[in-house]
Design a protein that fits this description.
With 451 residues, the chain is mainly α. Helix content is 64%, strand content 3%. The protein has 17 helices and two strands. A two-stranded antiparallel sheet has the order 1-2. A hairpin with a 2-residue loop joins strand 1 and strand 2. Helix 1 runs antiparallel to helix 2, helix 3 packs antiparallel against helix 4 and helix 15 runs antiparallel to helix 16.
Length: 451
């Protein structure tokens, strides 16, 4: 707590904490707006440029108010997540190192451009310790969840309007998956994380009217949004979160038969809805794998293309297995170019557009393969240690026994499982909405809020 003895100082401290929490809640929704809808400006320096957007200013605001609280509390609330901060720092430092060692073997490596992305990735990582500093009590967690769920409600509302043909915000064809104002894959990740909030409430049982209202709102917004986005990696993340919630509820002996059925129905809803929304893409992918015949060859389909990009990424990893090709090198022709001929030979029926090129530098659209290709075994080990440390810190906190209906550690754990699923289709993109969700998850996993 805030260590002050004078009653007036106590009041002033509580007011500062309240205002800091409001700044955090107010800045949070900005992080989930797609870059194309944000005002911004460009800074030019050293032969490269840095795009500053409203979301960057939101992150800075969150970090500043967290620092204010941290100074007043001597950063005591960071102690519980010490292992998380250490492993995350090790991984982030390695991304900077990986923007320089490619000089040894890649003459055209655009290190200035990739150094900017490393800085921006680290910028968003500061959200994690900010969460641990700002989420001090259950009321702080409630405020964060309200802000997060309201963003999901807005995103799902826009997505449904797009689904039914409303010509708004670069909608996709009516009746199919939609991007809302987030971007289609990020929309799926946001919806899955929101759904996980409802899954957590179901597993441990809501105990107040507020809990029930929040659970219902998160369930409806997250469930409908996950289906509307049609991102099967988000669906996988939601299913992993459902399994984790069931295990936690069972271990605390809080998951009765009725809530077990509800969890199963919720899991079936997102799975069935996701498969229905992506039926054509899944059929194409089945044909790509050799089941049946493709009726319309030559079209670029997302799952088939990702398989191609994963193949190229794994070949890049084989080329430099220890340290990889360099941070963000999956976008560089010098890194992926030597493996294009083998990829085209391996996938002869894929159209030219499915393969990376200077005009279409698709990157490696799977975080696990990307880390292997760009950062090698060393980077992958650091990445894995960071993720498992976050999971372990949250699990250790939860093993102490049944908490209040929902704790920061439980939400953090579920959101890390969501991230584990989404990383199968979203790679390490600095400054996107999913990036914010990842670091929120790490921050909550390492947070020990009081009642």
């Amino acid at each position: 707590g805030l260590r002050r003895s004078d009653p007036h100082t106590h009041y002033a401290d509580r007011e500062i904490v309240r205002r800091a929490s409001l700044v955090f809640a107010g800045a949070l929704p900005i992080l989930f707006i797609h870059a194309r809808y944000q005002p911004g400006f460009t800074l030019h320096a050293g032969g490269t440029h840095v795009d500053m957007r409203l979301s960057d200013l939101a992150v800075i605001a969150i970090v500043i108010v967290a620092l204010v609280i941290g100074v007043r509390t001597r950063f005591a609330s960071l102690a519980a997540g010490r292992a998380v901060w250490a492993t995350a720092a090790a991984f982030l430092v390695f991304t900077f190192v990986a923007t320089f060692y490619p000089f040894a073997f890649a003459h055209g490596y655009p290190w200035k451009t990739h150094l900017v992305t490393a800085f921006k990735y680290t910028e968003y990582a500061l959200i994690a310790p900010a969460v641990a500093l700002l989420v001090r009590k259950r009321s702080d967690l409630q405020l964060l969840l309200i802000a997060f769920v309201l963003v999901a409600v807005a995103a799902t509302t826009v997505g449904l309007l797009q689904f039914f043909g409303a010509p708004i915000l670069n909608e996709w064809p009516a009746g199919g998956r939609q991007p809302s104002f987030v971007g289609v894959d990020d929309f799926g990740a946001l919806s899955a994380a929101t759904y996980a909030v409802a899954l957590g409430f179901v597993a441990v049982g809501p105990r107040t009217a507020f809990d029930r209202r929040l659970a219902w709102t998160a369930g409806l917004a997250g469930g409908l949004g996950a289906v509307c986005a049609g991102a099967l990696a988000g669906v996988l993340g939601a299913l992993l979160a459902a399994a984790a919630a069931a295990i936690i509820g069972k271990s605390w002996r809080l998951l009765d038969a009725r809530r077990s059925v509800v969890l199963a129905v919720m899991a079936a809803w997102v799975l069935g809805g996701g498969v229905m929304m992506r039926g054509a893409a899944l059929t194409h992918f089945a044909h790509f794998l050799g089941a049946g015949h493709e009726n319309q060859p030559g079209n670029v389909e997302s799952y088939s293309q990702r398989w191609v990009l994963d193949y190229i990424g794994l070949r890049m990893f084989e080329g430099r297995p220890i340290l990889g090709q360099g941070w963000q090198s999956g976008y560089d022709e010098e890194a992926y170019g030597p493996y294009l001929a083998a990829a085209k030979k391996r996938f002869p029926h894929q159209p030219e557009l499915a393969f990376p090129s200077p005009a279409h530098s698709w990157g490696i659209q799977n975080a696990y393969v990307e880390v292997l290709a760009e950062l090698g075994i060393v980077g992958f080990a650091l990445f894995a240690v960071m993720v498992f440390t976050g999971l372990g810190v949250a699990v250790r906190a939860l093993r102490r026994g049944p908490p209040l209906p929902l704790t920061a550690a439980l939400i953090g754990l579920l959101w890390l499982f969501v991230a584990g699923g989404v990383w199968n289709s979203l790679w390490l993109i600095a400054g996107n909405p999913f990036d914010a969700t990842i670091w929120l998850a790490f921050g909550l996993a390492a947070t020990r809020q009081a009642t």
